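A quick aside before the break. I want you to see a complete sequence-to-structure record at least once, exactly as it would be stored in a machine-readable document. Don't worry about memorizing anything.
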Amino acid sequence: MTFLERLQIGAVVAGLSLTMLPATQAAAQAAASSATVTVSPEEARAIAKDAYLYAYPMLFNYKTLYQQAVDPGSKAYVGGFDKFRHYSQPYGPDNKEIVTPNNDTPYSWAWLDLRREPLILSVPAVPKDRYYSFQCVDMYTYNFAYIGSRATGSEAGRYLFAGPNWHGETPKGIDKVIRSESDLILVLGRTVLNGSSDVKNVQAIQKQYKLTPLSTFEHTGAPPPSPKINFPKWDEAKATSVDFIAYLNFLLQFTQPPAPSEAELMQRFGKIGIAPGALFDPAALPPETRVALEAGVADGKAALADAEKHTTGSFDLFGTREQMKDDYVKRAVAAAMGIYGNTKEEAVYVGTHVNGEHEQLVGTQPYVLHFDKKDLPPAKFFWSMTLYDLPARHLVANPINRYSIGDRTKGLKYGADGSLDIYVQNTSPGAEKTSNWLPAPAGAYDLITRIYGPNQAVLDGSWKFPEPQKR
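That is the input. The structure line, written in tokens, reads:
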């Protein structure tokens, strides 16, 4: 037996355990804790690479969950689970909770804990000319459902969210039951804002978004409280090291048994100590094992960075489990470049960080983006272009406080032939062009256009985003 084969996964990382576990999860934890790793350092490295890419979106999903629902000291704290925090102003450069934030539709954030019982989302009738949506994201970061203008229409409705262990009947008065693969989910609302004068209208709609426990909705006794969770403190340095395994094991407890397509994958991951609720202590690893796992994490990071360089659109980055087809590299790229992006039928993100000569875009070089009338972004609802600095991918402070530009921008000037020029640069392009100016930082940036309600030309790739041309 090799030194690696004698490794026992049994010590717990401080703060990465649950106060209580359901019986099935406790059994899984006990089994995982006594498992022996039986792979060579070479195989451990290969498994760690794939496992890191698999875990990456879940880790950064947990980062947002922890900051918004667990840590009261966080600026992003929404007040805990099962409640909304609404924003009625567009994001600006001071908002750094997530990367590549949407600057057109103020968010309504809610994290739901479905272990105890389902929750019901009630939405009001929304004017047909005002876009809104609720994107439903599970722990894997799959967009497993949508509610809103495109998916369910503008009428009022009640939608029941059920976790993997709820098997009740649909109550009267519920328009649809939406089932999740995980007990903890994100419900992310977007309500379009048409300028600062429209804030009160958005707020009036947001106040009517309601979350109600099923027992309250049916006027019955509430189920017993769910076991308390000891959430591990978010530590990005740990989460992006070999310690990612401890975070992943914690998160897997809140998912249903592996999907059929992942059964073999989870068996493979189990060879390096990955399992729902398994206790993992990297300090207990033999030196050669830890070196192999660390190398695997580095391989995963390199593969992710390379994949990001070759990604310029969101066409297939987001969606349901079925739509993503077990492409875990693509799922990781989505989280790295813009976690919580929309499924393509809802909205498509296209853009670039290089010009036609494949040079990095920088604000000191003025560019123009030209759209012929027939080539304007085809959107059923609206389109918007936003600029983000690199590598942070945040909005950029600028003298005219403009963080996006699009078909709803007041004063946008079109050519006599219906064409449109957008000027992207660090300094003003001149008074006559300010209406069409998207300010850029002096350094590197990424340019993303969001098309809400894209038509078939966008979805099949026949519509092309124009290359930035040097001025």
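Two observations worth writing down. Residues 1-36 have pLDDT under 50 and may be disordered. The first helix runs from residue 23 to 33. We'll return to this after the break.
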